[in-house]
Write a structure and sequence with these properties.
The complex is a heterodimer of chains A (357) and B (253). In chain A, strand 2, helix 3 and strand 3 form a beta-alpha-beta unit. Chain A has 13 helices and 15 strands. The longest helix of chain A is centred in the middle third of the chain and has 20 residues, at 221-240. Chain A has a seven-stranded mixed sheet, with helices on both faces. Chain A has a five-stranded mixed sheet with strand order 10-12-11-14-15, with helices on both faces. With 357 residues, chain A is an alpha/beta fold. Chain A is globular. Chain A folds into two domains: 3-194 and 214-240, Thiamin diphosphate (ThDP)-binding fold, Pyr/PP domains (Rossmann fold, 3-Layer(aba) Sandwich), CATH 3.40.50.970; 246-356, Rossmann fold, CATH 3.40.50. With 253 residues, chain B is α/β, with parallel strands linked by helices. Chain B has helices at residues 26-40, 59-62, 75-85, 97-101, 105-113, 154-157, 163-167, 184-202, 217-220, 224-238; strands spanning 47-51, 66-69, 90-96, 119-124, 127-128, 134-135, 175-180, 208-213, 243-246, 249-250. In chain B, the strands form two sheets. Chain B has an eight-stranded mixed sheet with strand order 2-1-3-4-8-7-9-10, sandwiched between helices. A two-stranded antiparallel sheet of chain B has the order 5-6. The N and C termini of chain B lie far apart (53 Å). The mean pLDDT of chain B is 97. The chains are: A alpha/beta (357), B alpha/beta (253).
Chain lengths: 357, 253
């Protein structure tokens, strides 16, 4: 038996996120029940306390994200999770976390929307996740896994990114990724310790009192703070932008997709190639920062770009910004909680080729 | 050597700078009493406060302990996160009536119901002072504010919420008391109550809640002196000043 086989275990995506968080040193989790992410909360309830952390089932999503705010203020690695309607409620807290530069991890196992929508998988929260979500000029890092392994690994990485840049990090998954089981290899590395949290509130012993605040009313204070945040965001864009390419070196049709859609699109790309269509896949791993530059380069070499999403065209707008009119961009979306099949994506690839002709 | 010794002075936990609070406002007094308690219990260096959205949002300017702001009403949720992470620190919430009894009512009740080991100092002055004196959940019947210009009408606007009585229905709070900053005896009582609340936490006994009836001359539209009379005569009538829960046991009227 190979070493890796011994380490393999079967888990749902939701559980893999929770285990990844615990292995990353998460010491505080607060959550509220909502489908399709309940396994995550239950896993934390069962395992976090026995491994030295605190689990709280909060009275609301608002309370959960603000408990995470408090735990982060006190220097702990802290996480909350929910699904789309619950994430809307957390936006207030996410704005405050971003404003106060508090490292934190938020997991969104997306379901259909708007409103109560459905409990089926969806990608309709792309705008909310990548364009701010709450009030004010801010960004959070957004990671988009497409396998249970990545649910685990990206959550593990999210805590380190959060500490490194003092920023909230969102793992943007969907109900399918949360619910399905796959064999995964658990993280064995000890979590990297981030920079010392000298800003944390631990009591003013042997130092001057500190405060965590986002109300900046003195003349010019808020402006300076916002410029400092933007500088931080530019640094993140330069160092943390991540993406995956699949058969992009010679493709005529460049498919752009993220998360679950990217995974299915991989199969469609292979099927297209078997039929003589040179298709390739560009898959952003970080949705913010978005890999605009690499996508622009790839699009310039392709003949057409096709965006596939489980929404009505959200990442589509970032793709259009990247391509900047250089090539035709077509879109196919599944906004009703249904997952596209490989055959459906293959058909869309065929259409993109036909349109070009 | 001087033959005189200092018997009264500025508490070490209180910053030496003018406060932004209006003349006759109860907040400056409540801050001072809180600072005296931090001094007396010698806990300033291990205390972390959570300030509300409202007039006391700038508490970090005056109190010389670590302080975090919180989103409006989420104060006890933030305090919960801090206290659970650092259980050996002293964590308190300082909240006004809008923060605690309107937008933050859910957080207030559930933190109390979990019996979080925190102290909540609730300054009830019946108005939203920060935003212009609007109606608060604790505004008295008939009280005129910009959002109830003809007076609070209980039939359509609800009656004042009595936070102590509400929390006293829960099993987990350890200490609940209402006091009033309406004169020297009230000030002495208020300090005793704040001290009991912090001592409760130092002893690791559980959740402590102190409601302070407090003057807001600016939005009472009264002089500081008449504001004290309003607290004593009008507010006390609706909000009885007494101990509701002591050592975890309900105190009957």
């Amino acid at each position: 038996m190979k070493q890796n086989d011994k380490l393999r275990t079967l888990m749902t995506g939701n559980e893999a996120v929770a285990e990844g968080a615990i292995r990353a040193g998460c010491k505080f989790y607060a959550g509220y029940p909502i489908t399709p992410q309940n396994e995550l909360t239950a896993y934390m309830a069962k395992h976090l306390p026995e491994r030295g952390g605190t689990f709280i089932q909060s009275e609301s999503e608002l309370a959960a994200v603000n408990m995470v705010f408090g735990a982060s203020v006190a220097g702990a690695r802290a996480m909350t999770s929910s699904s789309s309607p619950g994430i809307s409620l957390k936006q207030e807290g996410i704005s405050y976390l971003a404003a106060s530069q508090l490292p934190s991890v938020i997991v969104n196992v997306q379901r259909g929307g708007p409103g109560l929508g459905s409990i089926d998988p969806s990608q309709a929260d792309y705008f909310q996740a990548t364009k701010g979500g709450g009030h004010g000029d801010y960004h959070i890092i957004v990671l988009a896994p497409m396998t249970v392994q990545e649910m685990h690994d990206f959550t593990f990485a999210a805590f380190q990114l959060a500490d490194k840049h003092r920023i909230p990090v969102m793992v943007l998954a969907d109900g399918r990724l949360g619910q399905m089981m796959e064999p995964i290899v658990l993280q064995q590395r000890p979590p990297a310790r981030g920079p010392a949290k000298k800003w944390a509130l631990t009591g003013a012993k042997g130092r001057r009192p500190q405060c965590i605040r986002s109300l900046l009313v003195k003349d010019g204070e808020l402006e300076r703070h916002n410029y400092a945040l933007q500088k931080c965001y530019r640094g993140i864009a330069a160092s943390e932008t991540d993406f995956e390419e699949f058969h992009t070196s010679d493709c005529d049709v460049l498919v752009a997709a993220w998360g679950t859609c990217a995974r299915i699109a991989k199969g469609a790309v292979l099927s297209a190639r078997a039929r003589g269509i040179k298709a390739g896949l560009f898959r952003p791993v970080t949705l913010w920062p978005f890999p605009h530059r690499r996508l622009a380069t790839l699009a310039s070499k392709a003949k057409a770009v096709l965006v596939i999403e489980m929404n009505c065209g959200q990442m589509l707008e970032d793709v259009q910004i990247s391509v900047a009119g250089a090539k035709p961009v077509s879109f196919s979306g599944w906004p009703g909680g249904r997952i596209p099949t490989e055959t459906e994506i293959l058909r869309e690839i065929g259409r993109a080729v036909a349109k070009r002709k | 050597m001087s033959k005189y010794k200092t018997v009264y002075g500025r508490p070490r936990s209180l910053g030496n700078l003018p406060m932004h609070y209006c003349a006759g406002c109860g907040h400056s007094l409540a801050h001072k009493l809180l600072a005296e308690v931090l001094d007396e219990l010698n806990i300033r260096e291990r205390t972390i406060g959570v300030a509300p959205v409202g007039c006391a949002v700038f508490a970090y300017l005056y109190l010389k302990c670590d302080i975090s702001e919180a989103a409006h009403g989420r104060t006890p949720a933030v305090a919960t996160g801090i206290k659970r992470t650092l259980p050996d620190r002293i964590v308190f919430c300082y909240q006004g009536d809008g923060d605690l009894a309107a937008i933050g009512m859910a957080e207030t009740i559930h933190a109390a119901n979990r019996g979080e080991n925190i102290a909540v100092i609730f300054v009830n002055n019946t108005v939203y002072g920060m935003t212009g004196g609007q109606m608060a959940p604790t505004s008295l019947p008939g009280q005129q504010t910009p959002t109830c210009p003809t007076g609070r009408n209980a039939a359509t606007m609800g009656a004042p919420i009595r936070a102590c009585e509400l929390l006293n229905t829960l099993d987990r709070p350890f200490y609940i008391e209402r006091v009033a900053l309406d004169g020297v005896p009230g000030i002495i009582k208020t300090k005793q109550a704040i001290r009991t609340a912090f001592q409760t936490q130092v002893d690791g006994k559980g959740y402590a809640f102190v409601e302070i009836l407090s003057p807001c001359p600016t939005y009472f539209h009264l002089s500081p002196k008449d504001s004290l009379a309003f607290v004593k005569n009008d507010m006390r009538k609706y909000f009885p000043v007494r101990v509701f829960r002591k050592e975890g046991v309900i105190v009957n009227d």
